[in-house]
Amino acid sequence: MSVAGLVAAAAAQTVTVTLSSSQNGMTVAPGATIDWTITFTTSSGDNAGLALLAADLVQDPNNPASLD
Questions:
Q1: Residue 14 belongs to domain spanning
Q2: pLDDT tens digits, 5-28
Q3: For residue 56, is it within any domain?
Q4: Which end of the chain offers a freer environment for a tag, N or C, measured as fewer CB atoms within 10 Å?
């Protein structure tokens, strides 16, 4: 396969990353636990699956409470 073919094949594949919480849009008490779900979805039929995807949530330095 040529380099152009590899680029075209790589560009055709899609991975969608979704970060969601059941507390989205709600007011929560200080110190309350917030649950997070990270979902990865791959496009079908044009890839070999998802081998590895790592996520690292980094806290905003302006947030007064620590992430555990």
A1: 3-42
A2: 545 555 567 788 898 999 989 999
A3: no
A4: C
